[in-house]
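Bumping with the actual sequence this time:
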Amino acid sequence: MFKRNDWIFGLISIALACAVLYFSQELKSIQSMDPAGPSAMPTIIAWAMLAIGVLHVAGALNIIKKTPAPANREKEGGLFKVAVVCAICAAYWWWLDEVGYLIMTPLLIFGVMTTVGVRNLKKLLAMSLGTTTVLFCIFYYALQVRMPLGVLGKFFE
């Protein structure tokens, strides 16, 4: 009977009922031939809407409580993966000058790719070493950018 998202309809119904009850108070001051007055019908409908809204919210919360949430493996551990990638990047930044670009960058790429789920060792090594080599050649030789060489600096003098 109820669905997981029925709480939305319930809250809208409750809000609308409260608005009708509030604005129907102004109708009580109007004179009418009806013994109940001009605010009687809007008030009855508003109370019915309020009851329906409460039933929908309660029913939806009951369904949500009884049924397990759909499994989504992408969301599981998402925050942990972000924290690991941030830690890898912090370590890269911390040791880049001392160890050097040519050692730290393949480790960075390897670590991030492993964290996000790449398990093929050939891909990991090819991407890590290939990307580092291409970027180093472009920046160090073609653009003449001074790279942090660290322990390998004596080989590039």
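The tokens above came from a reply further down the thread. Residues 50 and 73 are 38 Å apart (CA to CA).
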